[in-house]
Amino acid sequence: MSLFTELKRRNVLRAVALYVAAVWALAQGLAQLLPLFGDFDWVVRWLVIAGLIGLPFCIAFAWFFEFTPHGLKRESQVDPADSVAHRTSRKLDYAIIGALAIAVVLLLTDRVSLWHNGNEKAVVPERSIAVLPFADMSPGKDQEYFSDGISEELLNLLARIPELEVTARTSSFSFKGKDIAIPAIAQQLHVAHVLEGSVRKAGNTVRITAQLIDAATDTPLWSQTYDRTLDDIFAIQDEIAADVVKQLKLTLLGTPPKTRSTDPEGYALYLQAVQLGRQHTADAYQQSDALYRQALAIDPRYAPAWDGLARNLINESGIGLLSAKQGVAGARAAAIKALAIDPDYAPAHARLGWIAAIGDNDLAAAAQHYQRALALDPTDLGVLGSSATLLRALGRQDQRLALDQAVVRRDPVNVTALANLGAAQLWAGRFDEAIASLGTALSLSPERAAAHYAIGVALLLKGDAKAALAQMEQEPNAAWRMIGLALAYHALERKSEADAALAALIAKFGKDWPYNIAYVYAFRGEADESFTWLAKAVELGDPGLGEVATERLFDNIHADSRWLAFLHTIGRAPEQVAKIEFNVPLPDMAKP
User: Fold this and answer.
1) How many CB atoms lie within 10 A of CB 333?
2) 3-class state of residue 206 by DSSP
3) By the 8 A CB rule, do 333 and 491 touch?
């Protein structure tokens, strides 16, 4: 008798077919069910590996054993006349057909679901637009800040129209200087229309050319050239926005938004200050502050300039260029002036919300400021991103993470938004996701302060101190680098270097960063010193205390009886923050 015939007689081939079909069906089912409970792809992978390992045992079992009316017996013990292998084969055939049917149904269900989701994603909202950075066509090619600023002002103006979906600035501006066709840009940004143009500024005259393009056909729907003086720059922006509304056949539910006007010379200084502030370096902030003040000297009633100055001062204290008290005091004064000019200016309300939460430790007041800002402009990504600060202070990590994720989906190449998301993932214990988000932020802005440090902390908490040290050594900001080195050396049990790094940190930043020194001591397990520095942080009004309840580097002292007592003294105990009402509606995720 041939081997093949014997394999058939003993039902080995059918047993193998049933085994493979069953493993396939089980893998298909798990692949569709497990995503409902989290990232469990590894379960399916190990199932397949286990199935391959078990296959030889299945073959051996089918060869050596046979099911009989009297139970399982070795094949050599069964008289051929008493064998029921032919009846078993029929049952196996039915079982194989059933398992294959289940697997095929699951496979088709998965493919239909993917096709359906793909089609849903492919639907582009008709009333959607991206504003690309206008080209600088000035003779000296030295007006890029002005052409970029005009583009951004138009984008912000259109974004205030609820009926129109507008791609966020950083996503639109990510294509600047790249030779990519309009349809390809529109496809990546998920929009139906693109507004592009150019700006030519010479002295007091300006020429702006704007063109609205139907992305599907790559054809212009409308174009216009404006030759005016700088005095007319705001009227031009309003006209362009009105023409876009007209061409897209939008029926506005309210009055069309208007540009905030100011002195043309001051406006040019303001645009330049905004662009410099985004560089997030000491020199750029110094120049940006000076330009804001020059613009305000020309027009002290221009609210956006006061708010821009407030934003700078907060950021400068965050990277050690100003003390916490200096930054908070200056930002508060600037934001209050902005609201005195325009009580409905949402970004300034959000700025005061941050100051109340972080600078004043008044979470109830912060909630009121943020709710007011969100009521005035629920789509402003800056306001939404800042609101996440209060959610973290309140210990609502899930809501904070969802909000940061929503902001990044709306503006996926915004470095600040990516850094905020990375921080949220870090504090939520999702270390690999945090490292990925922060890595993306660094790829877009290699000199981003505190990004290498945050990746280092994530690696420390994962248990990879060696890789953490490598990240800390790359941190460009001196304060964050010194904090990171003190943490990493301790984790590596390099005691003398850890002590020296901590001593250097205290000598240079002891008056400005007591909160951070406190969590270095906590990480080292030195609770007495940690609480001493926390007391100093309270005394000096260190804004870092706004993060104390959720800062993972304090985990080592959570069991100390002084921990909850301390949280009570600063109003951050769980039962205290639970009483504060604050709700942030997530932006529509269908929008680009």
Assistant:
1) 14
2) strand
3) no
To the nearest 10°, the Cα dihedral for 500, 503, 504, 508? 180
CB 270 within 8 A of CB 291: yes
Q: Are strands 135-136 and 65-68 parallel, antiparallel or unpaired?
A: unpaired
Could you give the CA distance from residue 123 to residue 175 in angstroms, rounded to a whole number?
22
**136-171 tens-digit pLDDT:** 998 888 899 999 999 999 998 898 888 888 988 888
Residues 305/347, Cβ–Cβ less than 8 Å: no
Residue type, 523: F
Residue type, 383: V
Q: What is the pLDDT of residue 591?
A: 43
Domain spans in the chain, listed from the N-terminal domain onward: 3-122, 128-251, 510-592
CA 448 – CA 419 distance, rounded (Å): 9
- Phi and psi torsions of 525, nearest 5°: 80, 15
**What is the DSSP pairing of strand 135-136 with strand 205-214?**
unpaired
Per-residue confidence band for 413, with pLDDT thresholds at 50, 70 and 90: confident
Provide long-range contacts, Cβ within 8 A and 24+ apart, for 479-485. 479/319, 479/320, 479/505, 479/508, 479/509, 479/512, 479/513, 479/516, 480/319, 480/449, 480/450, 480/452, 480/453, 481/453, 482/508, 482/509, 483/453, 483/513, 483/516, 483/520, 484/452, 484/453, 484/456, 484/457
Distance between CA 537 and CA 545 in Å, rounded? 7
Decide: 298 and 268 in contact? Cβ < 8 Å: no
195 phi and psi, to 5 degrees? -110, 120
Burial letters for 98-117: b for 16+ Cβ neighbours within 10 Å, e otherwise?
ebbebbeebeeeeeeeeeee
Span 455-505, pLDDT tens digits: 999 999 999 999 999 999 999 999 999 999 999 999 999 999 999 999 999
3-state helix, strand, coil in the chain (%, to 5): 65, 10, 25
Domain 128-251 class, CATH top level: alpha beta
